[in-house]
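Usage

Read records sequentially. Each one opens with the input sequence:
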Amino acid sequence: MNDIKTIEELRAYSERLKAVVAALKRLEEGTNQRVKPPTSPRF
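and closes with the structure output:
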């Protein structure tokens, strides 16, 4: 379970994680834009 990773493997893993986080942030921003209520009051 506790495999010792090389620096190259850790760097590659880190880059994949960064890409996943960036993709999740883009998805979240898109979702927030669709779900946001109108900014003007309705009354």
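Summary fields computed downstream for this record:
- Residues 25 and 31 are 10 Å apart (CA to CA).
- The chain has a mean pLDDT of 82.
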